[in-house]
Amino acid sequence: MSEWLQSTYSQISGTVGFGWVAFAFYIVLGWLASLGMGRLQRKIDSSSREQRQIYTLLCKIGKGVIWPLVLVEGLRGIGVDVVSILGAAGVAGVAIGFASQTALSNLISGAFLVSERSFKMGDYIQTATEEGTVESINLLSVYLRRSDNTLVRVPCEMLIKNPVRNLTGAAMRRIDLDVGVDYSCDLMEVKRIIMTVIEKQPELMDTPAPVVTFSGFGDSALNLHIGAWCKTEVYHAVRYEFATAILAAFGEHGINIPFPIRSIAKYQPNA
């Protein structure tokens, strides 16, 4: 009897010992795989924005898949009944699923955002409530870096349901300016002056052609709309220089930009 107990104890000890070795092996294997993906992600940071966006997302998905597999295999190695645990987790998952419909909606929306590529990391976008530079695109949310250097998280569902304006998605961007001139001005002369200013601005492009159009009769001014194209990366600087040059040219040629005028009659009570 004592010999049988000793033999059984030796078998159990050997099995349990090997199981913990296997568990440690899978944990180390998962750690090495995760470390390798982290290094791969750092290497692709120097690639194009579209490739970096896709590879970064794939690395995150890979890390999310590796660790569950590692834990399952490790638990099986130490003799844990993983099937029973997964069955219980499946029942609990149904209940959790009903409570996490928003997360599921964001997940599906994130997949659509990645597939359609309406914007990429580094683009400056405007949403219904936020705007900023895209820092990262995840399956549940998109992180935007605002102009004041704060980071805001926007759920993917919001980006799918509402319009998103990509301000830097193209190589060129049009500068739009609205200006009003005095009713006594010659509109053809005003247009000639504006076109001359455009020709003297080295950053403004000839193609597509710039436009100066009449937009309407204002209360105190003739309203004009000016459109000229430049490279997207220099948009803000060129817009400022362009507006400054127009003001200077108007001053040189005596073109007045009138202020709204209101006439108020003096009230005279009946005698």
Descriptive labels:
271 residues, elongated, SH3 type barrels, 18% strand, alpha+beta, 3 domains
Q: Could you characterize the architecture of this molecule?
A:
With 271 residues, the chain is α+β, with helices and mostly antiparallel strands. It has three domains: 11-99; 117-166, Roll (SH3 type barrels); 172-252, Alpha-Beta Plaits (2-Layer Sandwich), CATH 3.30.70. The chain has seven helices and eight strands. It has helices spanning 2-43, 49-77, 82-99, 101-116, 156-161, 187-200, 235-252, and strands at 124-126, 131-137, 141-145, 151-155, 165-166, 172-181, 211-217, 222-231. The protein has a five-stranded antiparallel beta sheet. A hairpin with a 3-residue loop joins β2 (131-137) and β3. α1 (2-43) packs antiparallel against α2 (49-77) and α6 packs across α7.
Oligomer: single chain
- Provide the β-strand percentage band: 15-25%
Radius of gyration computed on alpha carbons: 33 Å
The ordered H/E elements are HHHHEEEEHEEHEEH
Structural class: alpha+beta
For the sheet with most strands, the description reads: 5 strands, antiparallel
Number of strands: 8
Give the total of domains.
3
Distance, first to last CA: 131 Å
Helical coverage, percent range: 40-55%
Strand order of the largest sheet: 4-3-2-1-5
Low-confidence stretches: 8-16
The averaged pLDDT comes out at: 78
Number of contiguous helices: 7
Overall 3D shape: elongated
